[in-house]
Each structure stands twice: as structure tokens, then as C-alpha cells.
């Protein structure tokens, strides 16, 4: 048992933490204190009750399974860890993730995967506005739909949406690649539909495979969106776009 | 008929409204169709610390001996929540300036100079370089809307975190770095294509408003195990409320940056017309801390137009715990030096007025990414100049503090000050010199 936690137990190699009796600080402190050779590699968290910053700042290949809804910034800045949320996620789930996996089994609030540099974020439900805002290399797969201004200023990585996308998709987009199967309510400034060539189909397939749903959806149903790169440089003729 | 050639003529009269600068800007705008972009802070004359004077000791107060009696200068930042507050030897820090806007040599020189004097430097919009971490004994890591280069490893190896909401040159505006300075290394650090004109976001991507900010700060504390002091930096606009909300959100330190504070690049119209002067911001920020019972518990850093030890002393007397310098530090490194007068003229400007920092052609090798220009700046020598300058600022501040009878620069107080103008008296909330009249006394601020 980890001594920094007031309420935890180890059964069958799994560390159980109840956030009804332990604090997020105690949980995160215990997770941060794990050594690279730890054998406490599976953590099950009960009663998350929408608390914020659960499992933020992890940097080990451990699994954290959270049984219920989480608040803001769950899995924030994650490196290496596999974080499963059996419920909904608040604002900024997996924000600035570097590597690893965050899987939301329910819906996600705004700014899911914001500024993420790497890793994979899977959202089984819908994601609200600004999903993937300022993404920098993260891969995001949303099985439902995404809200307005998703992938705003997206710099790198992929956003795959099996459902629909809201207004201003990919506004001020840099080099992030967007795949949407459903309808797009509107494209943002500098975001355009692009040809879906074989390399893009292969890229999409790899992301679907990583999300465990390759073969469950028809890749030919997706459309690709990217930057037209017309706003990459200040020019007087582009003023109306700003 | 009058003889026109013999008729006395009036002297050609330039318009005060349409002055020489204004006319040139109208012509420039008409020719290009785009607003003027430049670096630095507000250049217009605004009420400033020059409009305040210290009273010094007299019969009712006795001074300290200038060369014999101690006048301490150390400052502890982050005592509210952080497990590891920052201890500075002097109350003068180096403000956030990015690698990208500045050359690697300039960043190294800032680190060397500040470290020699026992104070901190600050990263900028673009992440942390190994060079600046290596040369800065105490490094503040900025957390900006763009999150360029943001990563948990640097978050854990910094000494403090500064959540940047805004800056004095452009409250409500985002950063800007034009293509000339987006070199391969800068682009890689920011995950951007090489050579593009980068325009950073003006709002944070994953929080809006003070309630969200409180949760964001909680997350940063969780990630760093509550070790690091967390600053919140705002551009001076509504400093009373912004300071109060930063405190409410859980900040350890509030940084208030007045409109004279510099920027690497933004619109001239923004710099000169948005935000309020540093002098007008200090007392409001202090009042907010006092009203909340948090003065000296949450530390206040003031920046924007700090040039000499008198400015430092005046900011402290008004209630700040420390100041930050940016433009003055660059000048100490060698920016706008007359040594390069001919080259500044070749760029269409002159030494002392050069502010096209975004173009990356700085002859002094400071606001550039050009390897040849950058090589002109010796980081060791430049770091020494900065250390010398910081030493002078400190000695000057101590000189004034001793003259006012203070054994620590933090013992300076508003009672030590008077104002030369009604405007400054109203803004600083100190009496007009020679009177006991404080304009606006009885108001809310």
C-alpha cells in the first residue's frame, strides 16, 4: 500500500484508491512518487465525483482506471500513462498530453486534448467546443461529434471525428490534419477540404486502428480538411479573413 | 496692389494634431494598407515615476549612514502556497522575453547577468531552452495562451511558473513573431512551419475567467506537486480587479505590467492606446491586496518603464515587492547602442529609436535570429554589463531607502513620497508636493 494515501488498498496487484476518502493531492502525489521499476502498474480510482486534475502530470507507463465522471484537466500533461475514464470528462481532458493514452468512455467538455503534443485521446461520446484547440501533435479520435472551433489553430497531429463537426472547424489552422465522417457546419478561416489520397486513407486507418475501431467504420465516408496556408503570412489582401 | 514679395510671412506652422510623426504614419498606411508593427512599449509621454519625489529624512525622521548601516534588499516570492518559494537577493527581476524574439546569446547574457546578481530571469512565448535554463540559477517559466514549447519536463525543472494573462504593451492581445525570426530551431520549438508569420492566441485555450483560472492553477500545482510559486501576470488595465481575481484564483505572486512595458512585436496602435501607465496601476494593485488582507502575503511585481534605482524605490514605496525589467535590460546588453549608429541609420532609424525588433535585423545581435548578427553579442561581456546595471539599480534604490531611514527597501512607504503633478498625485495616491492634498481621496481606489 502506498503510505502517502490515507485510503488505498492493493488487491491482486491492483492499487485501489477511493477519492471519497483520499484527496486528489494524495492520489497524484502517490502516482508521481512511483519509481520506474514499480510493480504498482494498475490503479483503480473510485468516486472521482467530478474532481479536477485527477491523474495530472503522470510520467510512467502505468494504467489508471477511473470509475466515474472527472472534472477539469484529467490526465493533464500526461506522459506514458494509460488513463481510462469510465464516465464524462470536464474541460481540458488530456490537455497538453505528451504521450500515452487517455480514453473517455463518455462525453467530453470543451477544449478536450487542447495543445496536446502527442499520445492518443479517444472520446467515445461527443466532445464540446474547441476540441483539439492549438493541438501540437496529439491524435484525437472522437466517436461522436465535436463542437464549434474544434482544432482552432491546430498546429500538428490529427483530429478524427466519426460524427459531425460544428461551426468554424479548423479556424486559423496550421498543419493539423482533420478527418470528419459526418457533416461540417462550417469551416473556419484558412481551413479547406482537401483531397483524400491514399496516404491520407492510410493515416486515417492507422488512427482508427490505434483507437481499436478499424473495420468498424468505412474510411471512404470521411472527408479530409487542412490548411490552405493563405494566412501564413501577413498580407493586406487577407485582411478580411482576420 | 500689394507687393507679395515684400509682404511679411508668418512662420510655417506645423499642426499639433497632425504632427510630423502622424503625417508620416498616414503616408505609410496609405502606401502599405496594413498597420504598423513594432517592438518596445508605449513611447508617448505618460505620467510616470519621474513625477514622484522622495521626501527623505528631516528633523522628524533620521536617515541611515550610506556606507555603514545595512539596507537589505532580499525578497521572497511565493510564500503563500509554494513549498519552494524563490529567494532573490535584489528586488529586480528580468521580465519574460522569448528565445525567438531574442537571440540565444541574448538569452544567455540575461541569465548570466541576473544569476550574478542573485535574481531570476523569465522565459517567453516559445518555451525554455537548455541554454537559458543552464545560465539562469532561478528561472521563471511562462505559461502562455499559445503554449508553444510547453511541456511537463520544463514545468518541473523551472523555479516558478508565470501564467501570462496579458502584458502591458498589449492587454488583450496575443504574441507575434514574424517569419524572419521563425528559423528552423524556433519553428521546431513552437511546432510551426519555418518562416511563417506567427500570431499567438490572445486567450488561453482551456480556461476562461477567474473560476477556470483557479482550477488551472490547481492543475499546475498538482503537476508540480505544489513546489513551484505560481505567478499571474496581467497587463495593466483594471489592476484592482485583476489583482483581486488573481488572488482569488490562487496566485502566489501577481505581476502587473504597465503600458510602457515592452513587447517583441505588436501593432503600434495597440501599444500606444490600450492599457494604463505603470504609475496608475501600482496603487490599485496594492489596494486590492490590502483590501483582501493579502499585501506582502501575495507578492506584487511591477513592470513597465523601470529605468533606474529611483523607479525601483518608488515602485516599492507604493507597495510592490519587486520590479521586473525588460527594455532596460536589453539596453544594458547593448540594444540601441550608438556604437551601431551607422547601421541603425541604414535601417531607416537611429540608435535609441530602433524598435523594428520583429524584422530580425538588430545590429546589436539581440532581437534577431541571424547567426552573423547574433555573433556580435558576446554573452559573457553582455551578461557582465547587465550585472553591473542591476548592481547600480540596487545601489541607487538603497541610497534612497537609507535617505528615508529604511533598513530594508521594503520599508519604503507611500508616506515617503510626494507628487510633482496633480495627475501623478491622483494616480499614486500621494500628496501633491508642498501640500497635504491627495486628489481623489475619498474615492473607491
Description:
Chain A is mainly β. Chain A has a single domain (8-235), classed as 3 Solenoid (Pectate Lyase C-like), CATH 2.160.20.60. Helix content of chain A is 9%, strand content 24%. Chain A is built from two helices and twelve strands. Chain A has helices spanning 24-32, 198-210, and strands at 8-11, 14-18, 42-46, 63-67, 82-85, 101-104, 120-123, 136-142, 156-161, 177-180, 191-194, 223-227. In chain A, strand 1 and strand 2 form a beta hairpin. In chain B, the strands form five sheets. Chain B has an eight-stranded parallel β-sheet with strand order 5-15-14-12-11-8-7-6. A two-stranded antiparallel ribbon of chain B has the order 1-13. Chain B has a two-stranded antiparallel ribbon with strand order 2-16. In chain B, helix 7 crosses helix 9 (278-291), helix 9 (278-291) packs parallel to helix 15 and helix 11 crosses helix 14. Chain B has one domain: TIM Barrel, CATH 3.20.20.70. Chain B has 445 residues and is an alpha/beta fold. Chain B is globular. The A-B interface holds A 24-25, 28-29, 32, 52-53, 56-57, 59, 71-73, 76-77, 79, 91-92, 95-96, 98, 110-111, 114-115, 117, 130, 133-134, 136-137, 152-153, 155-156, 174-175, 232-234, 236, 239 and B 32-34, 146-147, 150-152, 155, 178-179, 190-193, 196-197, 201, 205-207, 212, 215-216, 218-219, 222-226.
Any idea what the CATH superfamily of chain A is called? Answer: Glutamate synthase, alpha subunit, C-terminal domain
End-to-end gap of chain A:
56 Å
Mean pLDDT value of chain A: 94
Counted up, domains of chain B total 1
Which of globular, elongated, flat, extended, rod-shaped describes the shape of chain A?
elongated
Low-confidence segments of chain A: none
Shape category of chain B: globular
Instruction: Enumerate the strands of the largest sheet of chain A in spatial order, edge to edge or round the barrel.
Output: 1-2-3-4-5-6-7-8-9-10-12-11
* CATH superfamily heading of chain B: Aldolase class I
Level-2 CATH architecture of chain B: Alpha-Beta Barrel
